[in-house]
């Protein structure tokens, strides 16, 4: 197996000297980071780091991922730089534990993704021709089938948040031709699912309500693909706006010496409209 260092040097050999220099510095920094992680886990290293297992740091990985997403939503690039470092640390942590157990090393992780990227981009590293990003995605699915993937939808992680999972399933099946024709088609489907939910409610069908509500959410999630909107990110930003506006209402009610439960429907509407003007 070619080491990531060997591949790195081979990849940069044909680049201009100035770029080679910068990339060489990046490679050195990465090596130093790998060594720091190994030092922390060494017998005379940090007691806390040495005690951690895969499961112990899994929660931290999820938290760091959400902090990366928050920095992106806020367009806070200073924070994004820091949070990406924290997320990278999680990768190194898992790889270091695996290395100590004789399972795999960080070189194996890098070699695996290196081979995958090259194999799935024959239009960059080979002779294949593509006309645009849509064709790239279709080619991607074909290549994964050749790699042994038995189902188009088999690669979607079971643990994904449901809204994102619905989006990714629609995205994957669309690459093999199973999709609505356009945004108007899926909007019609939204109306159809909403009508079926109304019918289930009218019939008092509890199981049907759950079924139709799920179908409606699934369809709305996939509407995001046609609108070029990430449903998970869009909903996350919507909930952040809601929290900001509701906190504004709480502050205003406190200033006026009012309990929230004492507010009339009209007062709620007035405060909510004011909150929308103050909290974008």
Structural features, described:
With 280 residues, the chain is mainly alpha-helical. The chain folds into three domains: 4-106, MazG-like (Helix Hairpins, Orthogonal Bundle), CATH 1.10.287; 162-229, MazG-like (Helix Hairpins, Orthogonal Bundle); 233-278. Helix content is 75%, strand content 0%. It is built from 13 helices and no strands. α12 (231-255) packs across α13. It is extended and about 65 Å long. The model has no long low-confidence stretch (mean pLDDT 89).
List the topology elements.
Elements (H helix, E strand, L loop, with lengths): L3 H9 L4 H25 L5 H5 L2 H21 L2 H24 L5 H14 L2 H4 L7 H14 L15 H13 L8 H20 L3 H22 L3 H25 L9 H14 L2
CATH class of the largest domain: Mainly Alpha
Order of helices and strands: HHHHHHHHHHHHH
**Taking Cα atoms only, what radius of gyration do you get, to the nearest Å?**
25 Å
- Count of domain modules: 3
**What is the average per-residue confidence, as pLDDT, rounded to a whole number?**
89
What characteristic shape results from the CA principal axes? extended
Largest sheet: none
CATH architecture annotation of the largest domain: Orthogonal Bundle
Structural class: mainly alpha
Distance between the termini: 53 Å
How many DSSP E strands?
0
- What percent of residues are in strands? under 5%
CATH superfamily of the largest domain: MazG-like
From the 3D structure, determine the CATH topology of the largest domain: Helix Hairpins
Would you identify the regions where 5 or more consecutive residues have pLDDT less than 50? none
Continuous helix count:
13
Which percent bin holds the helix content?
over 70%
């Amino acid at each position: 197996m070619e080491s990531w260092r060997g591949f790195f040097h081979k990849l940069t050999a044909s680049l201009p000297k100035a770029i080679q220099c910068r990339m060489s510095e990046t490679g050195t920094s990465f090596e130093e980071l790998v060594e720091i992680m190994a030092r922390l886990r060494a017998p005379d290293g940090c007691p806390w780091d040495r005690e951690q297992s895969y499961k112990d740091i899994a929660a931290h990985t999820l938290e760091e991922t959400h902090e990366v997403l928050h920095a992106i939503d806020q367009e806070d690039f200073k924070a994004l730089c820091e949070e990406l470092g924290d997320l990278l640390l999680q990768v190194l942590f898992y790889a270091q534990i695996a290395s100590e157990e004789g399972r795999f090393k960080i070189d194996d992780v890098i070699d695996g993704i290196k081979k995958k990227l090259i194999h799935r981009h024959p239009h960059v590293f080979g002779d294949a021709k593509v006309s645009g990003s849509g064709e790239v995605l279709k080619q991607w699915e074909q290549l994964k089938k050749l790699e042994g993937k038995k189902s188009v939808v088999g690669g979607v992680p079971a643990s994904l948040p449901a809204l994102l999972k619905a989006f990714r399933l629609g995205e994957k099946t669309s690459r093999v031709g199973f999709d609505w024709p356009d945004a108007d088609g899926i909007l019609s489907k939204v109306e159809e699912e909403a009508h079926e939910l109304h019918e289930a409610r009218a019939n008092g069908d509890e199981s049907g309500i759950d079924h139709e509500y799920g179908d409606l959410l699934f369809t709305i999630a996939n509407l995001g693909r046609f609108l070029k909107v990430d449903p998970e990110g869009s909903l996350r930003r919507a909930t952040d706006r809601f929290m900001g506006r509701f906190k504004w209402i709480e502050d205003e009610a406190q200033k006026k010496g009012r309990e929230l439960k004492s507010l009339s429907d009209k007062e709620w509407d007035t405060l909510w409209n004011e909150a929308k003007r103050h909290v974008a």
